[in-house]
Amino acid sequence: MRAQFVMSEIGVGLRRNLTMTFAVIISVGLSLALFGGSMLMSEQVSKMKGFWYDKANVSIYLCNKQDALEASEAATKKADGSAGGSTGVTTCAKGAVTEEQKKQIQAELKQMSLVKSVAYESADEAFKHYQERFGNTALASSITPDQMQESFRVKLKDPEKYKVVTSAFVGRDGIHTVDDQRQAIDDLFRILNYLNIAALAIMLIMLIVALLLIVNTVRVSAFSRRRETGIMRLVGASSFYIQVPFIMEAAVAGLIGALFACAMLMSGQYFVIDHGVGLRDKIQLIDFMGWGSVLAKLPYVLFIGLLMPSMAAFIALRKYLKV
């Protein structure tokens, strides 16, 4: 097989169907950009989960005098029938947490095998941390240290088992609430996963459109050159020899589309993450992926950009060129 003949046939086919070839390049490029973006987003979410789950604590907030007073008033109103919308008596109704209760809670936490560490935060420390975070707000000026709750910050060896700690301590005397930070984090990751699923769905739609365009482009190209293919059949050319220029046309269009997708992915990393918008500097709480992760996905994009159009063209031509 002469390479010069094949290359000339590829050029002729691309020029004859320039508009459809351009549509194939754009659709393949967009679908593969979404494919690469979905892979990067999945890796980013997994990286964020590992980072934030490791920092997620189970916080056990203890009753203070203010909580005990409010709980006692709520219990009195409920007993008098004057609190129709009350949520009921809380454990703080029995008074603020005692030193004995704090020692017992701390001892039980340290005995649990799944607990990695336990840190005690006093009311004064909680007030200091609150002022550091919300000191500029109007509400912060009305908060006093005695209104803050003491707490135990529990770090688990396996954050997945936070419910064990919650069920063991919720509702006990001296404990106001048991708050697991992972629940809020899970909501964030659930939204990110939904967005990733939506991107994958759009990618599949774009891939289907690209495949249909490739099939139509190949068939139009084969129809416009039916005289040449007929002559090649008469002189004994094999089916594979006849099909190669059409398959290569689709492969070239797919490769250009894949290169376009790679350019979009690298542009997104450069202009959105690192520079331009600069999300890496503006949102420092998120450890964004670097260039290594982006470059590692480009070979997959290029491979699919070559393979998908070639296979689509080969399948379409098997029936169309059969005589």
UniProtKB/TrEMBL annotation:
- Enumerate the spans annotated as FtsX extracellular domain: 58-178
Q: What keywords does the record list, in alphabetical order?
A: Cell cycle, Cell division, Cell membrane, Membrane, Transmembrane, Transmembrane helix
Oligomeric form and interacting partners: Forms a membrane-associated complex with FtsE.
Topology with respect to the bilayer: Multi-pass membrane protein
Quick check: keyword DNA-binding in the entry?
Answer: no
Q: What is this protein called?
A: Cell division protein FtsX
What organism does this protein naturally occur in? Streptomyces virginiae (Streptomyces cinnamonensis)
Where does this protein reside within or beyond the cell?
Cell membrane
**What Pfam family is a match, any one?**
FtsX
Biological role stated in the UniProt entry = Part of the ABC transporter FtsEX involved in cellular division.
Which segments cross the bilayer? 21-41, 197-218, 239-266, 298-317
Q: According to the lineage, what is the superkingdom?
A: Bacteria
The residues covered by the ABC3 transporter permease C-terminal domain are: 201-322
The uppermost taxa in this organism's lineage are: Bacteria, Bacillati, Actinomycetota, Actinomycetes, Kitasatosporales
Tell me which family the UniProt entry assigns to this protein: Belongs to the ABC-4 integral membrane protein family. FtsX subfamily.
